[in-house]
Specification:
The complex is a heterotrimer of chains A (342), B (280) and C (308). Chain A has 342 residues and is an alpha/beta fold. Chain A has two domains: 2-127 and 251-298, 3-Layer(aba) Sandwich (D-Maltodextrin-Binding Protein, domain 2); 128-249 and 311-341, 3-Layer(aba) Sandwich (D-Maltodextrin-Binding Protein, domain 2), CATH 3.40.190. Chain A contains twelve helices and eleven strands. Chain A has helices at residues 2-15, 37-47, 59-68, 83-88, 147-150, 166-176, 186-199, 225-234, 263-272, 276-286, 313-316, 327-341, and strands at 25-31, 50-56, 75-76, 112-113, 116-117, 122-135, 160-162, 220-224, 238-240, 247-256, 319-321. In chain A, a hairpin with a 2-residue loop joins β4 and β5 (116-117). Chain A is globular, with a radius of gyration of 21 Å. In chain B, 74% of the residues lie in helices and 0% in strands. Chain B is built from twelve helices and no strands. Chain C has helices spanning 5-45, 63-69, 83-115, 119-130, 137-148, 153-160, 174-197, 202-210, 215-226, 228-244, 247-253, 260-268, 274-306, and strands at 47-49, 55-60, 70-72, 79-81. In chain C, the strands form two sheets. Chain C has a two-stranded antiparallel sheet. Chain C is built from 13 helices and four strands. Chain C has a domain at 83-272: MetI-like (MetI-like fold, Orthogonal Bundle). Chain C has 308 residues and is mainly α. In chain C, a hairpin with a 6-residue loop joins β3 and β4 (79-81). Classes of the chains: A alpha/beta (342), B mainly alpha (280), C mainly alpha (308). Chains in contact: A-B, A-C, B-C. The interface between B and C is large, with 120 and 116 residues.
Chain lengths: 342, 280, 308
C-alpha cells in the first residue's frame, strides 16, 4: 500500500513538475555521489524549493564548465585548492556566510582557512585526508607511513592500488622525500621522480575505488579516508594510516556562483547545511567529516568517532593543504607525471 | 559483380541439395562462442544486481534490496530515461542523414569534392572525444548565454554529429557494389525519384540502415565525455551519472537499474520478433 | 542510351548537384557541431596557455605545437625529442592495430554466421549481438573485471576443474586491455561486415564449388573480396576510436600506462595545458585522416582492379 502511495505521489510529482514547487528552484553542481538525498529531501520539504543535482568528476572539469558560462548552476562545491582560483576569476558571489545565522556552528578550525579567510564566500561541506589503506591481516607492520606504497614491504608488492590523481600522489611523494610542496627545486624534483619511478612497478593498478580491497585483489592502497572507512565496515582488518612523513588534506566547500539565478535559495542552502543535524546527513551519506560542531551526535553509529575521520593528536602536525601550485611549477610536475605514466 | 535480386529462390534450390554452400568450417562455432562471451559480463552484472551486500564483486547472498533502492532513486531513473531519449532521437537523425549521405557518395565516378565529403563525414570519428567536448563547451556556452536556452537540443545536436559516421559507414558498405539495374528500370518506367527511393532503394538498403541505426544508438548510449561537457543543469545521462559515482563508490544499485532495462529491452525485442513473425 | 556529350554532361552535373543536396544535412550538422568546434581547437593550439586551464585569448604562441615533438626535461632542462609522447603514441597505435585484427578475425565469422541465417531470424541475431551494448560501458567493463579477476568466473571454473592450481593474474594486464577493447569494439566490426555480406549472391559461391574450389578457396577468392567494403568500414570504425579509448585501458589495464586519449585528456585536466592538448589532437587528426585517405584510395583501386 505504502509503495503504491509513493508511486502515485511520484506520478503526481512528474505531472506537476514546477507547479508543486511554487517557491522556486535551486541548481547544485557537485561531485558525483557526494550529495545526500536525505539532506536534499529535507531542504526541499523545509523551504518548498525544488533542487536539481548535476555532477562533475574533477575540479578542472567543473572550473572549465563554470568559467565557460551558460551552465545554469546556482551552487558549486570546489575543493580548497581551487577556491582561490574561482574567486580570482570572479566566478563566486561574496555571499557572506560568516554573517549567516548558523555560522556559529562552524568549527573554529575551519573559519580562518587560507583559501577563504573568515569565510566570506564558502561554507564547509566535507573534508578528508589521503593516506595508506592497508589490510592489516596481510601486513602487520607500521601503517602510518607513505612507505606502504612508495617503498612497499614484500607482502604488499604487486597488490597496491594508487589513486590516479597527480596532485595527491605528487604531494605525498614530496613530503616523503622531505621536500616542500610547490617548490621548483630540481634536486627535490629528481628525488620525487626517482621514488615514484622505483615504486610504480610494485603497484598493481592506479584506479579509482578501493572496493577490490574486499576481494583481496588489493591488499593496500593510497586513497581517501572516507573510502577507507567504508572498506573497514566490510572488512574489519582494513585500516587507514596517517603518513608521518606528511599527508595532504582536502576540504570541499559550498559556494554560490556569481551568475546564479536563485541567489536567495542558494543562501538558504548555505545556512541550512551549517546546522549540525543537517551537516550530519551529509557525512552519513558520503562518510567524510564535515567541519560543523556538534554534528557528530547526529551521525550514524560509529561514524562520528571513527579513526578514519579523527586525526590522532600525534599526526595532526603532519597534515598539510594540497595547494594549487603556480602554472610554471604545475608544468614541471605534469612532465614528471607524464614520464611516470608513459 | 552483378547481383540479381530475388536470389533467394536460387539459394533455396541450392540448400536443398544437402551440401550447403553457405557453411564455412568453424564459423558457426566462432560466432556462437563470441556471442556467448558477449553475455558473460552481462551475466555477472545481473547476478550482482541480486547481491545482498554493497559489493559488485563479492557475493553475500540473494536479495532484492538494490532493486528496491533503485526504484526509489529518481536520479538514476531520470538518467537512464534521458540516455535512451537522446540515443533514440540522435540515432534516428544520424541514420536519416547518414543514409542520404551514403547515397550521395557511392556508386558514382569520382567527382570533385567526393573525397572531401568522405573526410568531412568521418571527421567526428577521428577527433578524440575530449577535444570535441572542450570545443563544444566553449561554443555552446556562448550560445547558451546569448539565447538563454539551455535545453536538451545541444546534447541532441552533439550526439547526432558524432553518430553520423557510425550510421554512414555500414550503409555505405552496403551500397558499394550494389547494382543499379532495378533503379534504372524503375526510372525507365517513369517512377518518380521518391517512389524509386522508397520502393526500391530503401528496401535494398534496409539491412545496412538497420546496422547503422543500431551502431549509432549504441554509440550515443555510451557517450560520456562529450555529454559531460555539454550537459546543462539537470541533464545527467546514465554514463555521466556513472562517471560521478566511480570516484566515490559504486553499489549494485546501478546493476539493478541496468538489469531492469536489460529485461525491458529483451521483452521489447521478443515482442518485436513475434509481431514480425505474424506479418510474414 | 544518349550519346550526345552535352546532354550527358548536363545529366552528370545535375547528378553531382543532387549528390551535394543529399549529403547536405549530414555535412551541415557535422560542420556546425564538429568542424566549427574544431576550428576553435585549432585556434587554441596557437595561444598562450592559461594559468589554470583555458588559454589566454589572442596571445599568440607556438609552444603547444613545440611540445608535441620536443620537451624540456623537467630536471636538467635539456631540450630533446619528447620520448614520452612518442612511447604513448606508439602504444596506442599498436593496441588499436591488434584490436582491429582480432575483431576482424572474430567479427567476420560472426557476421557471416548472421548473414547466412534464414532471413526472418537475422535481425534477432543482430539484436542479440547489440543488446549487451545497451548497458552502460562502465557497468559492462566492471562485468568484464568480474569475469577475469583472480577470484572471478574464469579462474574459479579453471580451479574447480583442476586445470590450474593457482589463479592466473589476468586483470590489469595488457591482455585484459586487449580483451576489453575487443569486446567494446566487436559490434562496430560485425555490423558493417554483416551489412555488406548480407547482399552476397551465393550463386557465385556455388559457381566456385562447381569449379571444384575448396571451401577455403571459395572463402578467400570469392567471399572475402565481395565483403571488402564492410571490412574496410569496420576497420575504420574500430581502429580510429580505439586510438582515443581511455575508459577500458584504465579500468582493465589498471591505468598505470597512458594511452593517447589519456594524454590528451590530461592536458585539458590536471596538466592545464590546453594549447598542447589542442596541438596533440590536431596532430592525431591529420595523421589519421591522411592514413584514412590513403587506405580508402588504395582499397578502392584494388577493388576496382577486380573489375565488374
Amino acid at each position: 500500500m505504502k509503495r503504491i502511495k509513493s508511486l502515485l505521489a511520484g506520478v503526481a510529482l512528474l505531472a506537476t513538475t514546477g507547479a508543486a514547487w511554487a517557491d522556486g528552484t535551486l541548481s547544485i553542481y557537485n561531485w558525483g555521489n557526494y550529495t545526500s538525498p536525505e539532506l536534499i529531501k529535507k531542504f526541499e520539504d523545509t523551504y518548498k524549493i525544488k533542487v536539481t543535482i548535476t555532477e562533475y568528476d574533477s575540479n578542472d572539469a567543473a572550473l572549465a564548465k563554470v568559467r565557460a558560462g551558460g551552465h545554469g548552476f546556482d551552487i558549486a562545491v570546489p575543493s580548497a585548492n581551487f577556491v582561490p582560483i574561482w574567486i580570482k576569476e570572479g566566478l563566486l558571489l561574496e555571499s557572506r556566510p560568516d554573517q549567516m545565522e548558523n555560522f556559529k556552528n562552524v568549527d573554529e578550525r575551519w573559519v580562518n582557512v587560507p583559501w577563504d579567510m573568515g569565510r566570506h564566500y564558502t561554507v564547509p561541506w566535507q573534508w578528508g585526508t589521503t593516506g595508506p589503506v592497508v589490510a592489516t591481516s596481510i601486513y602487520k607492520g607500521d601503517i602510518n607511513t607513505s612507505k606502504i606504497w612508495l617503498d612497499p614491504p614484500p607482502e604488499l608488492v604487486g597488490k597496491i592500488d594508487v589513486v590516479p590523481e597527480m596532485g595527491d600522489v605528487m604531494y605525498a611523494a614530496y613530503r616523503y622525500v622531505g621536500g616542500t610542496w610547490c617548490s621548483d627545486d630540481k634536486e627535490t624534483l629528481k628525488k620525487v621522480r626517482d621514488v615514484l619511478k622505483a615504486a610504480k612497478p610494485k603497484w598493481l593498478a592506479m584506479d579509482y575505488g578501493i572496493e577490490k580491497m574486499d576481494t583481496r585483489d588489493y591488499a593496500a592502497a593510497f586513497y581517501y579516508n572516507g573510502a577507507a572507512y567504508r572498506a573497514r565496515e566490510k572488512n574489519p582488518d582494513v585500516h587507514f594510516g596517517y603518513a608521518k612523513e606528511g599527508y595532504s588534506m582536502f576540504m570541499d566547500s559550498v559556494a554560490i556562483l556569481k551568475d546564479a539565478k536563485n541567489v536567495e535559495n542558494a543562501k538558504l542552502f548555505q545556512n541550512f547545511i551549517m546546522a549540525p543535524e543537517n551537516a550530519a546527513l551529509i557525512s552519513n551519506f558520503a562518510t567524510y567529516a564535515n567541519g560543523i560542531k556538534g554534528s557528530e551526535k547526529f551521525m550514524k553509529a560509529g561514524l562520528g568517532d571513527a579513526p578514519e575521520l579523527n586525526i590522532p593528536k600525534e599526526f595532526q602536525a603532519a597534515g598539510g593543504w594540497n595547494e594549487t601550485c603556480s602554472p610554471e611549477v604545475n608544468e614541471l610536475y605534469s612532465k614528471v607525471w607524464k614520464d611516470l605514466l608513459k | 559483380m552483378c547481383a540479381v535480386p530475388h536470389a533467394k529462390v536460387a539459394l533455396m534450390a541450392i540448400s536443398s541439395r544437402g551440401f550447403s554452400v553457405k557453411s564455412q568450417v568453424g564459423f558457426s562455432t566462432i560466432a556462437l562462442l563470441c556471442i556467448f562471451a558477449l553475455y558473460l559480463p552481462i551475466f555477472t552484472l545481473v547476478v550482482y544486481a541480486f547481491n545482498d551486500t554493497d559489493s559488485m564483486s563479492l557475493w553475500g547472498g540473494f536479495s532484492l534490496r538494490w532493486f528496491k533502492s533503485a526504484s526509489h532513486n529518481v536520479a538514476i531513473q531520470d538518467a537512464v530515461l534521458r540516455s535512451f531519449q537522446i540515443a533514440i532521437i540522435a540515432a534516428t537523425l544520424a541514420t536519416a542523414m547518414g543514409t542520404l549521405a551514403a547515397i550521395a557518395t557511392t556508386r558514382t565516378a569520382p567527382y570533385r569534392g567526393l573525397n572531401f565529403k568522405y573526410a568531412l563525414i568521418n571527421q567526428p570519428l577521428i577527433v578524440p572525444e575530449i577535444v570535441t567536448a572542450v570545443a563544444l563547451l566553449i561554443v555552446f556556452a556562448r550560445i547558451k548565454v546569448w539565447t538563454g536556452y539551455t535545453g536538451g537540443a545541444y546534447l541532441v545536436a552533439a550526439h547526432t554529429a558524432f553518430c553520423i559516421p557510425f550510421a554512414y559507414l555500414p550503409i555505405r558498405a552496403r551500397l558499394e557494389g550494389m547494382d543499379l539495374t532495378l533503379e534504372t528500370a524503375a526510372a525507365d518506367l517513369y517512377a518518380n525519384p521518391w517512389n524509386t527511393f522508397t520502393n526500391i532503394t530503401l528496401p535494398l538498403l534496409l539491412p545496412g540502415v538497420i546496422a547503422g541505426y543500431m551502431l549509432a544508438f549504441v554509440v550515443s548510449l555510451d557517450d560520456v565525455v562529450i555529454t559531460e561537457f555539454v550537459k546543462s543543469g539537470g541533464q545527467e545521462t546514465l554514463p555521466t551519472y556513472m562517471l560521478g559515482q566511480i570516484k566515490k563508490s559504486i553499489t549494485p544499485e546501478v546493476n539493478a537499474a541496468a538489469t531492469f532495462f536489460l529485461v525491458l529491452s529483451v521483452l521489447a525485442v521478443t515482442a518485436f520478433y513475434f509481431i514480425s513473425r505474424k506479418k510474414h | 542510351m544518349q550519346n550526345n556529350p552535352s546532354i550527358a554532361e548536363t545529366a552528370r552535373r545535375s547528378d553531382i548537384r543532387n549528390r551535394w543536396l543529399l549529403a547536405a544535412p549530414a555535412l551541415t550538422t557535422i560542420i556546425l557541431a564538429a568542424i566549427g568546434p574544431l576550428l576553435v581547437v585549432l585556434m587554441f593550439s596557437f595561444m598562450v596557455r592559461g594559468d589554470y586551464g583555458d588559454v589566454k585569448y589572442w596571445q599568440f604562441s607556438t609552444n603547444g605545437w613545440l611540445s608535441v615533438l620536443f620537451e624540456r626535461d623537467p630536471i636538467d632542462d635539456s631540450l630533446g625529442l619528447s620520448s614520452a609522447n612518442f612511447t604513448i603514441f606508439l602504444r596506442s597505435i599498436k593496441l588499436s592495430l591488434i584490436t582491429t585484427v582480432i575483431t576482424v578475425l572474430l567479427g567476420f565469422p560472426t557476421a557471416y554466421f548472421v548473414a547466412t541465417r534464414p532471413e526472418k531470424s537475422r535481425h534477432i541475431w543482430l539484436l542479440l549481438i547489440t543488446i549487451p551494448f545497451w548497458t552502460n560501458l562502465l557497468i559492462r567493463t566492471f562485468g568484464i573485471q568480474d569475469v577475469i579477476r583472480n577470484e572471478g568466473l574464469i579462474n574459479n571454473v579453471l580451479l574447480k576443474f583442476g586445470l590450474i592450481s593457482q589463479p592466473i593474474q589476468m586483470l590489469f594486464t595488457d591482455g585484459a586491455v586487449l580483451l576489453g577493447l575487443t569486446y567494446v569494439y566487436f559490434p562496430l566490426m560485425v555490423l558493417p561486415i554483416y551489412s555488406s555480406l548480407e547482399k552476397l549472391d551465393f550463386r557465385l559461391v556455388e559457381a566456385g564449388y562447381d569449379l571444384y574450389a575448396t571451401r577455403a578457396k571459395v572463402l578467400w577468392n570469392i567471399i572475402l573480396p565481395l565483403s571488402k567494403p564492410g571490412i574496410i568500414a569496420g576497420s575504420i570504425l574500430v581502429f580510429i576510436p580505439c586510438i582515443g579509448a581511455y575508459v577500458t585501458p584504465r579500468v582493465l589495464g589498471g591505468g598505470k600506462n597512458m594511452m593517447l586519449g589519456n594524454l590528451i585528456e590530461q592536458q585539458f585536466g590536471q596538466a592545464r595545458d590546453w594549447p598542447f592538448g589542442a596541438a596533440l589532437s590536431i596532430t592525431l587528426l591529420v595523421i589519421v585522416t591522411l592514413a584514412l585517405l590513403i587506405y580508402v584510395r588504395s582499397a578502392a583501386r584494388e577493388s576496382g582492379s577486380h573489375g565488374h
